[in-house]
Amino acid sequence: MDTLRLYFKLIRISMQSRLQYRADFITGVIGVIVMNVVNLGLIGILVNRFVHLNGWTIWELVFLYCLWLLGHSIFSLFFWHIRTLDDYLVQGTFDQFLIRPISPFVQFLGREIQYYGFADVLFGVLGVSLAYANLGLQWDWTKWVFFILAIVSGTLIETTLTLMLACLAFWTGRSRRANSLLMQLNVMIQHYPVDIFGYTFRVIVTGLIPVAFMNYYPALMLLDKIDRSRDWWWLSYSSPVVALALVGITAGVWRLALTRYTSSGS
Amino acid sequence: MKIFWSFTRQAFHNTVIYRFEFWLRLVSAFLWMYSIQWVWRTLYTQRPGAFGVSLEQMVTYGVLGMVLETFLDVGPEWYMATQVRSGAIDTDLMKPLDFHVHMLARSTGEMLFSLGVISIPALLIGYTLFDLQLPPDVSTGLLFGISLVLGYLVLFHLGFLLGSLALVTLDIRSISWAYYSLVSFFAGQMVPLWLFPQFLRVLAEALPFKSVYYIPMSIYIGTFTGAAALQAIAFQAVWAVVLLLISRWAWSRVRARLVVQGG
Amino acid sequence: MVASPSATYPLAALSTIISMIHIEHLTKDYRRLVRKEGFLSSLRTLFSAEYTTIHAVNDITFHINEGELVGYIGPNGAGKSTTLKVLSGILVPTSGRVEVNGLVPHKDHNANARQIGAVFGQKTQLWWDVPVIESLRLLRDIYKVPEAQFKRNLSLFDDLLDLHEYQNTPVRQLSLGQRMRADMAAALLHNPRILFLDEPMIGVDVVAKDRLRTFIKEINRDQKVTVLFTTHDMGDIEKICSRIMIIDHGQIIYDGSLDQIRARYGTKRTLVVEFEGEVPDFEAPKAARVKSEGRKKWFAFNRFETSPSYLIAHISARFPIIDLTVEEPEIEEIVRTIYRGQAETSEAASP
Questions:
Q1: C338 lies in a domain?
Q2: Which of A175, B114, C42, C330 is the right S-S partner for A169, CB 3.0 to 4.6 Å?
Q3: Do A100 and C111 touch (CB under 8 A)?
């Protein structure tokens, strides 16, 4: 509880820092909106020509895209700076964390806040609402609860994966490329339903770097696209479990990384 | 020009130190090639006629786009932006080397390095694993080469203009995302222009971005041949020159402003 | 010639001597990637890597008692920062014993963190874009400083560091001198027993430096804060440190007071003589003429080989003198010769 209160105090000062740069806010929001519009535009062009993508209609694809976006937006609001862990190491900011009597992890998480996520939230909510209307969906309360769970799981999944990759910096000094790889996978599953790809890829984004649980599997459940005759149909409900498992693994990785850092001095 | 080679060497040493990065870049290229050719194959089974070209051509287009990206993801904009933020831009201004040439040398050095170390393996992967076709004849290959150089110059100057913006607004990170997605979109890197609906196609054909990917790749797969190819190359050349002139003009204005304000 | 460490520093009239910092046979190793020259060798590192072990700190031992103000000097890469990092709990020792006020830094991390404060010259610990006072408030919460103590410290910093002048300014708008003072305030906000200063005066102007030095001395004297101070500036050492430790290549090569260092190594003296008129160059017995400029000449001699009065008598007998000075070597020069291992000790040159 104490830690949580301190985290919020840290966030508060980060927000104060961020508010010093107001002009950036507008360009940032516009930039993010343009990017999302272009992305959906690409999907739109393809559907325009090919009517559907492996059985996914345009509004289903919009839903898929925006469901990912909602989970991602919370991540990018609070935890975007995780990717820059290598800078913290190089510039000595991380050492400052280690001198203080509170968890360096909390200090690191609370260090920065980004506003790009705002535009993503707006875009995501809008997109999901439009898709919901256009698909004529009617969710009962279980589906609504699962929807919220899916978003939260999405945030946790992206945060933990990003953090684990960022921890590479403790070993190799730089982690940007690895994070770009994660972002790349994210782009792929954000735009396209995972079933459009081959088996190996599906295994990778399900079992190895489980980003598919950010949107694809929950979407199957929320859009009633689950094919119960197939073997792994229960994966569609598994996002929260995957998220929790990742949290556990990441905690271990972080501890390992800290041990490494304090014993080798990088 | 010795400058070019020194930047290439510098890029080489910088990356070799982070050898993990090298492998990751290769994996990344592999993933892009993998994804694009899967998308096209799946779509082909859905509606073969909608492509406008054969499946082999479409796959080649897609995979080639990813190979090209491995060395076309350079640009002076980040260097310029970081120099401004750190204030080190002053030392660049003091150097006896023309800034524009300096940036060109730097970008080209990095580009050549990526070309040699990352793109060639990526090309091999594309060819052996993802059915990347080779150009049908030598003349096509040559035209492709010329077109590629011109496309690179167009890309470079677009980046230079973006970097110049950094000198004025100080932070281009947020703008850059919109910039990259727009460039990639209108350059037809993933989805070729002939698949665009009419209103978008007209717009895309008028803009210079198609010079970067669409034109060279269309020449490569053979949708632009003979006169059409030469016409396209002329388009590229015109834009390369125009953008070069605009860049130099923009830089002289920015530079004057920097000198007055003290950076 | 390496000096044998003399670790005893007499503290007057203290019934118990508390060892604040206790380091015994501390060793800290790093593994470093071996960089290869040449194209092919570089390419090979893409596939396999070779490491080498560097002993950043190699079997050092020293004790610092409460209330001492110790200067810690050495060339870059000698191991100063590594020592500080081990003491502050950032690094875990490879071997050896480390105790800070009875606590082992890497084991009792949070407890140790509460009793130490640190200022790093190159990097501020304050939040860059917000007013200083906001950073201080947050640090108060992090270190759980009681409100009364917080207010007391703020008013102390107002007195000694002029905090009220810049406390509402964001850190990025502060001058370097102000930033250093703010960092000092931040480091001492929670009343730590021990203060680590890692090159805090870099780039600070002379006036601000003086203020900071005064502040450090006062904190050390009034609040009995033990200070360990790394620096390259000998002025810092001469003005405020009572004891210095010299580290080079991971080993402590000198540990003792300034007076001792002068007594032991400061054997060289320079006699500066100004003559009545232009005088041709000449040599004096047991002295070397090191410089001639206008009517002045500089003679260097070893004070154990000859005395200034003997030299003066000899010179004045030859030419009329109108002014003379005897110069002591600067600490900087002495330290330099210690680095180079060329120090002549008073034992080596007995009269």
A1: no
A2: A175
A3: no
